[in-house]
What we know:
The chain is an alpha/beta fold and 248 residues long. Helices cover 30% and strands 26% of the residues. It folds into 2 domains: 5-70, CATH 2.40.240.20; 80-246, Alpha/beta knot. The longest helix is centred in the middle third of the chain and has 22 residues, at 122-143. The chain is elongated, with a radius of gyration of 20 Å.
Amino acid sequence: MSLERFYSDTPLGEVGENVKLSGTEAQHMLRVMRKTVDDEVTLFDGQGGEVRAIVVACDRRCAELQIREKAERKPRSAPILELAVALPRGGEALNVVRRAIEAGADPIRPLIATRSVHRSDTKRLEKREQKFLQAAIAAMKQCGNNWMPTFLAPTKLTNLTLSEGQIGVFGTTQVGTTLRQFERKHGGVPAHILVVIGPEGGLTSEEELYLQDEGFFGLSLGHHVYRVETAVIGFLTYFSSADQSELT
Length: 248
């Protein structure tokens, strides 16, 4: 039986060293999961580190754990899947973030498109960043990923460009290339992909033309129109499931 996973916001040390958890994670461990002294858990630090630890002391607000075993540090997943996505409102945006992380997206960039929902005031952005962090932690607990993704600043679609060695794709509701056709054309799945997912209303024809002019490939998931969350899962899981020995 696997141990419950908890996030440490400080890098994890060596076997025998102690780690302190406080705040939201400690409350979740102690009040929700009912952990107490001598219980074992898994800790991860978002920097690739993972350990098996035992609770040695706790009170209502914090817990102290001793590292008993260090897991082998796993590299970041491949291929590199950068995601630029026009997020929906409120809680739906957090669902998109969680599913994207579970499917291997890193980094993640909110996209500002013609039909997207976006609020640019500083207070709202700061609050959303904190919610993104909590959504990321929840996703990492679920999927076993030990690397905290990078959240980039919101970007207008017309400012997107490809870096050297990066292949860009965007979801389209028009008749376009399928994922399998794209893979055959490139002799496999590219090692570094920028995936662009538009808003619920889709990208405008002008936006799709802009992306094509910048070298992006328009890809279709089929004949249906999907929600943002579904499109994100469809594209990312297809690419992330590629055999790493066959990346191009």
